[in-house]
Each structure stands twice: as structure tokens, then as C-alpha cells.
Write a structure and sequence with these properties.
about 200 residues, mainly alpha, 10 helices, globular
């Protein structure tokens, strides 16, 4: 196998491996393990940690969050042995797996936790940037979704300014997908009907 062919093979393998890891529906798995049933039947119907918290079981929600983060981090860290392009491919695959898991008819989560996991694996400084922006916007607006949208928008810009090209390109693509998955939240934000953090009923 020639050099270019080997690189393509490794990149595709990392992409596929990342997808399979990212497609593990931890919210669904932990929901059943904790005897809470299918979390897709409550709240927003999402499989992510935010909807898992709506079950009232904080331990299950925390495990879901941890799982969704790590399934973005682990494939990237493994793929780093083959270089930044392979790592980015693994991160992209993991993110796609979470958003569009084959096991669930390609209906997955919104990706924020897995986005964070990818940041942690690619360049951890991105997690700090994300956290600062998210906390600032959440504190000022009380909108979790707006905080996530702002944070994911700033991260690729920060990576670009730091000269982290692979991370900047990858997160720019992931940010577009995050916005697409949050289209309903964006509509509610524009209409003034989005629920605020800590709001009752």
C-alpha cells in the first residue's frame, strides 16, 4: 500500500471508529440500567444529558454527560498517534455518531457534550474558551441554549487565532452542525419563548 493510500485508509478508519464510538447512546443505556426506561419518551425526547436530567435522577444524568464527553475524547486521543488529520477525522466521526447514531434510526442528541469531548482531545484550551463563554452568556441571559451557541461559535475563532489549524477547521464544521441541530432552540430564542435556566414549569 502506497503512502497516500495508507494515509487515506488510516483517516477513514479513524472516521469510522470515531463514528461507532460516538454512536453509543449512553442516555438510553443508562436510562434502562437505572430502571427509568426509554428517555426518548420524556421531555424533549433527546438522548443527551440535558434530557436525562429531566428524569430527576442526577446520577444517571451525570453518567450520561460523562459518557457523551468521553466518546468524543477517546477516539481523538487514540487517533492522535496517526497525526492531527486522523485525530480530526476521529472527532468528526464521533460527533456525527452522536448526532446520527445508526442504531437509533440516525436520531441522536444535539452534540454539545460530545463537542466538548472533541475539544478536550484535540486541544484542551478550547474547553477553557468554551467554559468562559458559556458561563458568561448563561449568567447574563439565563439561556443555556444561547450560551452553547455562542460558545461553539467562539471556539473555532479562538483556535484559528492560536494557529491550531486542524482544530479550527474541525470545530468550525461541528459548530455548523450544532446550529442545525439547535434550529428549534434558535426559533424559540427569536420568538422569546425559550425556557430559561432554573425556570419552573
Amino acid at each position: 500500500m502506497g503512502g497516500d493510500a495508507a494515509i487515506w485508509f488510516i483517516t477513514l478508519a479513524c472516521l469510522l471508529g470515531g463514528y461507532l464510538c460516538g454512536s453509543i447512546p449512553f442516555g438510553l443505556v443508562f436510562g434502562h440500567l437505572f430502571g427509568l426506561g426509554d428517555i426518548r419518551k420524556i421531555g424533549s425526547g433527546n438522548i443527551g444529558a440535558t434530557n436525562a436530567l429531566r428524569t430527576g435522577n442526577k446520577a444517571m444524568a451525570a453518567l450520561t454527560l460523562l459518557g457523551d464527553v468521553l466518546k468524543g475524547t477517546i477516539p481523538v486521543l487514540i487517533a492522535w498517534h496517526f497525526g492531527p488529520v486522523a485525530a480530526a477525522a476521529a472527532g468528526f466521526g464521533a460527533f456525527l455518531g452522536h448526532l446520527f447514531p445508526v442504531w437509533l434510526g440516525f436520531k441522536g442528541g444535539k452534540g454539545v457534550a460530545t463537542y466538548l469531548g472533541v475539544l478536550l482531545g484535540m486541544a484542551p484550551v478550547g474547553v477553557l474558551v468554551f467554559a468562559v463563554v458559556w458561563l458568561s452568556v448563561a449568567w447574563a441571559s439565563r439561556y443555556s441554549s444561547l450560551a452553547a451557541l455562542c460558545a461553539t461559535l467562539v471556539v473555532p475563532i479562538a483556535y484559528a487565532l492560536l494557529g491550531l489549524e486542524a482544530s479550527a477547521i474541525l470545530t468550525a464544521i461541528l459548530t455548523v452542525l450544532v446550529y442545525l441541530k439547535h434550529h428549534q432552540n434558535i426559533r424559540r430564542l427569536l420568538a422569546g419563548t425559550e425556557g430559561k435556566i432554573g425556570a419552573k414549569g
